[in-house]
Structures are given as structure tokens and as C-alpha cells.
Amino acid sequence: MSKIFQYQTEQFADIKILRYQVPGFEELSLSQKELIYYLAEAARCGRDILFDQNNKNNLSIRRTLEAIARSYDGDRESDEFKSFLVYAKRVWFSNGIHHHYSMDKFMPEFSEEYFGELLSNTNYELLPLLEGEDVVGLLTRLVPVLFDEDVDAKRVVLNPELDLIKDSANNYYEGVCEKEAEDFYAKMEKGDPERPISAGLNSKLVKENGELIEKTWKVGGMYSEAIEKIVFWLEKAIPVADSELQRESLVKLVEFYKTGDLKAFDEYSILWVKDLDTHVDVVNGFIEVYGDALAIKGSWESIVNFKDIEATKRAVIISDNAQWFEDHSPVDKRFKKEKVKGVSAKVITVVMLGGDCHPATPIGVNLPNAEWIRKEHGSKSVTIDNITHAYHQSSLKSGMIDEFAYSKEEVARAKEHGYLGGNLHTDLHECLGHGSGQLLPGVGMDALKNYHSTLEEARADLFALYYMMDTKMVDLGLMPCLEVAKAEYDGYIRNGLITQLTRIDLGKEIEESHMRNRQLIAKWVFEKGESDKVIVKVQEEGKTYYVVNDYLKLRTLFGDLLKEVQRIKSEGDFEAGKRLVEDYAVKVDVELHKEVKERFEKLNLAAYAGFINPDYHPVYEEGKIVDVRISYPMDFMEQMLEYGERYSFLPNIN
Ligand code: ZN
User: Within a domain: residue 392?
Assistant: First the structure.
């Protein structure tokens, strides 16, 4: 990759905006480029859906902010207007008014009065007025949502003392409480008990006239206007599909969008997971369930990508040895898969991110999510190399490692081996971790309820951590020496106990599943290894460090915890899962938190990053695409305004 490519473009609030490069795009065939162009269009057409899923007011708010950003004709250089722009950028970044990671509503740093002044100097034709509503009406409707801290305070509530559904501000349920939702889906007909549909994945559950009904997201149903556009572009993609299986899977996906039939979605997922030969690939649909406290509703997302052939060799070695890893894990024999099926692994280059994968994006994906499909047909596991590369490039000079690593050796090890260690961790987590193990008969996927996501991430991380330090990794040629594993262990403990705290506001607890998982693991191994000094807490000149002292014993502890977490999942032991999460994953040491925040503030860094997508420009000759050119925009706000104009199809309220 070119050295002069500018990765970071700007920083605001706790966010930095990066760009990612797409090496290899020029070398793709014309039909692959054409396919990418169509899929990239489809990837953006569902953006409104995610905004609406995240909160019922999000589309109205986003459109109001866009109208102001476009047409406000007052003083655009004032500090107040600048703080308005920061707020607008945060809403674009989070796909709504709640922080994308903490799920807390973030508050504008301008006043209610100023909001009124902005609106009265904005072209009202651009405003999302409801029928019969005037600007004052819009103001009255939006002000409490923007300025009252208690209104829609949290997108996803995981605190068991609250009602997980009623108190969550997302738009997956309306007029429904936790108990009602649980009962509704417990009773629902799911077909073959061995191969149950993902009931509730693609609908909103509402109470109307005292009765619970599902509003299905499909053509002709809820979100129809956006889904029709997605279907339009998918249908263009079908004739230029990269393989016969891909063609069939896209046809099935269109059928699913048209009918809303979850059986069609499972059939699509099976076709998709079997399709290993395509160079260009796509995720498009209602996929991840992190946005719903009951882990039922799928948020809309898309990732368009092609295979990174060189880097994939690494992942193939891991997946070729999947059975060896499964057989040698410390997990109880009853909970292991006798035969690990079709763990396919590849490294990909992303060309377009959409919905819940944009602007913030995962660095690895393992799909499909349906447990029975994973068991019978395997799963596709990917690591996104051009994204991790962009992160790495932007982090090298940040000063984070130098501040929070204890010794010079630890810093040097992180800089030399940290990138490979991190990538191998992701490969192991995605290719093997999530796909490993099995449930005992009769145990449902939802048995762990609000603790499911955290424990599932912990399971996958522990699998990766356990094998990281295995000489098998060196034997397989995956790493030159175990220094790579040490760098990963250092980094994991440092992150789990210290650096990830930079992302939490003082006084708050840890909510997000991946963060909960990391603290759970790090705190547990620290505590269990305390008498043996496996990890030592050092305090020097007012700075706290956690230093790994005994890497082999640490590995054993990771194995012990893996064994327990797999047992909890396999048996559906809700109580034990709850205890583990509540005891280790949630609470924050207030003193340490303060110290870490102070040290971090001095570095003046953003805790989160997200991306500007490239643009794709078709070149037509006589109505036919003869080439697709790529460009890399620099301006985040410009891209967000463009998306708001070109890819916005839903009504203001859904
Ligand atoms: Zn994961």
C-alpha cells in the first residue's frame, strides 16, 4: 500500500475518522467490478432501516440535522454552530442519538434555544415535517428526545433490574414488556426443533388493541421502501454473480426480502455458507442481534468484499487444522464437536460497508448466526485486512502503547509482533472460536438471555488466547516464535484491565458485550493467578500497570476459564453465566478508572474509529458498464450528507 495514503482525516468527540484503501481493486475483472458496483449500491440502501431500528426518532432527527447542515444561513463560524456540527457528526457516526458502543444517549453541547434559532434559519422545505406539522410542532416533537437526559436514555438496557425491553430505547418493540416478548417467542412455532427458524429476526413486535403482532420487514411490509431498493440492486447483481452458487444465493436472498419468510433466510444462509469459490462476496441482511437485549432482532448491515488471496493462506492453515484444535481444547469431551464441519476461513478486502457496519466496523465476521446451520453446514469466517491495516497505521504513532505498557521490552514486543498477534487472535476467534463446541440436546440458543453475547464473545476469545501460546502455531508456520503470543497476551491483559476503560465515562459501568467479555477474562485470570503472581499489578509514580509474569501459567488459566464458559453455554447454565458476568465483567474500579482517563486525556486520542467509504463510479458506453473507477473521498460530513440524499427512502416515522 502506498505510503502517502492519508488514513486519518479528522477527530471529534471521542471519535476519529479514517479511510481504508482497496488494494487489488484495479486487477479485478470487469464483471467483478460491475458486481461490486451493484452490491455496493445495495449496501447503502438499507441505511435508513438501521437508523429507525436504533430509535423511532432517529430519522426525523437525522433529517433535521441534515437540513440545518445544508441550509442554515446564520453564522456558520460561531462556536455554537461548531458544537452543532460535532453533534450532527456523532449522530451520523452512531446511526442515531445513542453512542454506538456505550448505547447511552449523548447530549448536544448547544442549548435548546440555539436549536430553535437553527431551525428558524433553515430551509423548512428540507425539514422532516409530519403531515399537518409545522416547524414549532417539529421542535416540540424533537426537543425532549434531544435535550431531556431521561427520555430514551439507553438504546439497549442490559441491567437485569430494569425491563430489558420497555426500558430500551430501540425500535424493535413497541408497547411490549420483557415478559410478554419472551413468552411470545417462547411459544412461537419454529418448525423442525432440530432446525428452528430464527423467530423474530426480521420484524418489530408491537401491541395493537391488546394483541401482540409482528410487523415484518419485507417488500410490502415494514421498511418496504428501502427493501425495494436493496432488491433492485441485488437483482442487477444476479446476472453478473461470481459463481453459480452465488447466483442461487442472491436469488434466495431476494426471495427472503420479498416474502419475509425466515425459512427462505435459512436456505439463503446455507447457500451462502457453501459458496466458497467466489472471489467477490457479500453480507446483506438482518444479521447481528446485539441491538436487542433479548438477542432476537437482527440489525440491518452489509459488507461487500473480495478475497485477499495471500493473507487467506494464513486463515486456511488454521481452518485446515480445525479438528486438531477442537480435539485438543481443554473443554469437557461432552461439549466438543466430534466433527468440526466446514470451518472456512478467509481474509478479505472490504470495498463497501453499510448499515450496522458503517462508519464503525467489525474487523472480523463469522456467519451465519443460526447455531444449527453452523453445526450442519459450517460457517464462513473472515478477517478484514484492509481495515485492520488502516487501524494499525493510524495507531503506531499514537503513544498508547508507550503510555500503558510497563517495560521497554513490552513496548518493543508490541510494536514488532502486535499486528500479527492481533490478526492471529482474530483468525482464531472467528475461524475456530465461535464455531467450536456444541450445546447439549434441548438447550436453546437463548438460554443465557442477556448474558449470551458476552459469554459467546468470551468463549471465542478464550479459544484464541488458549491456542495463541501453543507451539503448534509455530509448527504450522503461523508465527515465527512465541514472542508473537506474548505480545498478544500483554496486549489483551493491558486492554482488558486498563486501556479499554478509556472508552467508558467516569461513574459508568461496562455495558458493551465485547468489552464486558475482555474484562471478564482479564479480571478472572488476574484473580485466579494472584497467589502464583501470574500477572502482577505494579504502581509507579502514580501509574498502574498490569505485567504478565508467567505466560505459560496464564495460558493454563485461559484454558480453565474456556472450559467453564463452554460448560455454561453447553448446559445453558444461566445462573453461573450471570454470576461470571456480574462478578467480573461489569463493575469498574473507580480509582483506576480516574487514573486511566487522566493518562489517556494527555495523549489527546480518540477512543473509537470509523471509516469513510470509497466511492465507485461506473463508466458507461452505449448503456453498458465498461469500467468501474474507485475514488477515496476525504470529507466525512460530505459523505454523510450525500448518503442522506441518495440513499434515504423511508418515512420519517415507521
Ligand atoms: Zn466474536
Answer: yes
